[in-house]
Amino acid sequence: MIHEQSIRKELIVPPMDRADHVPVIAPGQTFESVNEQIGSVVLRRGFQRGWLLGLAIAFSLLMLFLVAVTWLFIRGVGVWGINIPVGWGFAIINLVWWIGIGHAGTLISAILLLLRQQWRTSINRFAEAMTLFAVACAALFPILHLGRPQFFFWLIPYPNTLDYWPQFRSPLMWDFFAIATYGLVSLLFWFVGLIPDLATLRDRAKSAFSRVTFGILSMGWRGSAVHWKRYQDLYYLLAALATPLVVSVHSIVSFDFAVGIVPGWHSTIFPPYFVAGAIFAGFAMVLLIAIPLRKYYHMENFITDRHLRNMAIVMLTSGLVVAYGYIMELFMAWYSGNEYEGYMTVNRIIGPYGWVFGLMILCNVVIPQLLWFKRIRTNTLWLWGISLAVSFGMWFERFVIVITSLHRDFLPSSWAMYTPTFWDYATFIGTLGLFATLIFLFIRFLPFISIAETRELVHQTGGKVE
Amino acid sequence: MRQIFGPSANVIARASIIGGLLTVVVIIAVGFAYIRSPYNTGQRVDVEQPVQFSHRNHVGNIGLDCRYCHTAVEKSRFAGIPPVATCMNCHSQLLVNEPILEPIRAAYRTGQSIQWVRVHNLADFAYFDHSAHLAKGVGCTTCHGPVNDMALMRQESTLLMNWCLDCHRAPEKYLRPRDQVFNVNWTPPADQLTLGRQLVQEYQVHSRTDCSTCHR
Q1: Taking CA atoms, which of A176, A235, A456, B85 is between 20 and 30 Å from B151?
Q2: Where is A237: in which H helix or E strand?
Q3: For chain B, how many helices (H) and strands (E)?
Q4: Is A93 helix (H, G, I), strand (E, B) or coil?
Q5: What secondary structure does DSSP assign to A325-389, as a single string?
Q6: CB-based contacts of B76: which residues, under 8 Å, 6+ apart?
Q7: What is the residue-wise DSSP string for B52-81?
């Protein structure tokens, strides 16, 4: 029996952790200190000034989004800068960017769970929330960019009086299913994870209103052995479902392009390369949120330097896959011997949008190489800056793929430039407002670190860390 | 510490699960029923006209052939509504003092058209051709119902796209011999399918269910 336990310990704490000498959780924690520190963020009365200020800014950007969408609905998609060769503009760039950001959340919560990575514990909750909110932003664009958005429900296969059925051969149709499924499964996974924490909050809440609210949300969780057994089964099952989902969702988004015949789109490397890009951009966004969050709420003992370092390593790894994707695209353009493919690549680099390509290479390939250095990986300011650069860079990447492939393709008589209008920017910045508003509300009203899983970690490490 | 929820919460929790599911089912069912109901399609409503023209009287009692008034129906995609002159063929001599016919006489005097209210109103993105249907053996009453018994005109069929496609996918269920298309008393024989299949062969009826057939 003792022997067995020692083997388990070996499994729980991988050798690399000990070599790193930075714990996943600061020593000296007890169950109560975990409950208290994470729970107090939610249960404290009143609002902090910083939070209120942040919410106010985010909310005003959300209002800008509503104005932009109202104007879009009144005047039509022509208020954007799209034209006939470039039918897909900011809306699709933003869709791919947002849905990509969501993917890191699922990677952290599902894939790292299956790989039994302890360092996921402190970051999975807000990474999952980030997924949900990013999907909420992403899912708006496929509907908003329709010329007649009121008919979006024609994407649903349901028996109707037209005897009409959607076209299952279109990746845009698959998008609908992919995003809808992804949103639903992410929501379910996130909520299942929240139930034990909601019960903790229910038991610790002082006011009757909070007790009843958290009581309803926790749905009678008593923490019995049977509850925990079923909870674990379901949690792992959902993680196992979410893992192929996350890979397929962004692959399907990549099919929007790869299934087309446009040079620069019709590329078989897109599915894995898009998924790698999604993880790259997603981890950048997680770091962008995690670094200020742990500073402002003094969570350094839960979100330790180990987390930041590991996330930086994942970001570097996926960044290298993305860089490989760029190199392969350049190589295949030359290797194909196809003049359109060749011209597309030359146009990307030295054409009118060459500066975007340059920024993309700078942000996605050059700057992330700094992550090789341990000193930079452990410096939060540097890490935050690099994450910001990657977030911009991945947006530029989608710009390069969508715009530069479309604006000059087969027929030179159909070449044009794409100039985004004020409403393109307003819609994009507006979704940033929507995202930030949801994040601010989430960190105030729900525990942004999983209390139950952190308690489990405290139990496993016995409050002290090797 | 006092319990947050009393025993009644159990009932509420169970009821909310069932109620939630029921709500979804009911919303979907009501939506499905509504879109197919006469409220939405405008069926079975006796439409008020500027002149209370009775098909029952003119077709049922007097026995006029459909083509006497709707002259273009065999040649044009549009069956046409008869001009005032057609009315005046008879009503210049018949029931000349009838007050109900005053709008007809007024229109004849002034040259102003009668503003008939259209009962069968397809959207303009759907192209429909009367002559093609008559030439392939679709009778008037198959789509327009027992017009010979309508005191005021009403829409008998749904005119929904699935109603069109139902016939286009299986025309043999509805076809009749060409010489019977204007016979308002024609009823399908017991072996309609045998007759229908034979007519499909004879008239070379093609099912035509692609978009460009109607949505030109």
Answers
A1: B85
A2: helix A225-258
A3: 11, 0
A4: helix
A5: HHHHHHHHHHHH--HHHHHHHHHHHHSTTHHHHHHHHIIIIIGGGGGGSHHHHT-HHHHHHHHHH
A6: B130, B131
A7: ---HIIIIIIS---HHHHSGGGGTSSS---
Q: Render pLDDT for A69-79 as a digit per residue (tens, 0 to 9).
A: 999 999 999 99
Half-sphere exposure of B41 (CA within 13 A, CB side): 21
Q: What are phi and psi of A141, to 5 degrees?
A: -65, -40
Q: How close does chain B come to A335, measured CA to CA in Å?
A: 42
DSSP category for residue A443:
H
Q: Could you give the ipTM of this predicted complex?
A: 0.86
Tens-digit pLDDT profile for residues A309-356: 999 999 999 999 999 999 999 999 999 989 999 999 999 999 999 999
User: Residue A105: is it exposed, middle or buried by C-beta count within 10 angstroms (0-12/13-18/19+)?
Assistant: buried
Question: What is the distance in angstroms between the Cα of A212 and the nearest Cα belonging to chain B?
Answer: 7
CATH of domain A4-464: 1.20.1630.10
A254-269 residue pLDDT tens: 999 999 999 999 999 9
Cβ(A404)–Cβ(A351) below 8 Å = yes
Which residues of chain B are at the A interface, by a Cβ-Cβ cutoff of 8 Å? 4-5, 13, 32, 35-36, 158, 160-162, 165
Reading the block at residue B11, the tokens are 């009932």
Among A288, A275, A273, CA closest to A391:
A288
Residues of A in contact with B35 (CB under 8 A): 160-161
- Residue (of A348, A177, A356, A169) closest to A262 by Cα position: A348
Cβ distance of A215 and B4 shorter than 8 Å: yes
pLDDT tens per residue, range A91-145: 999 999 999 999 988 888 899 999 988 888 889 899 999 999 999 999 999 999 9
Q: Pick the residue of B1, B162, B209, B211 with the most A CBs within 10 A to test the interface with A by mutation.
A: B162
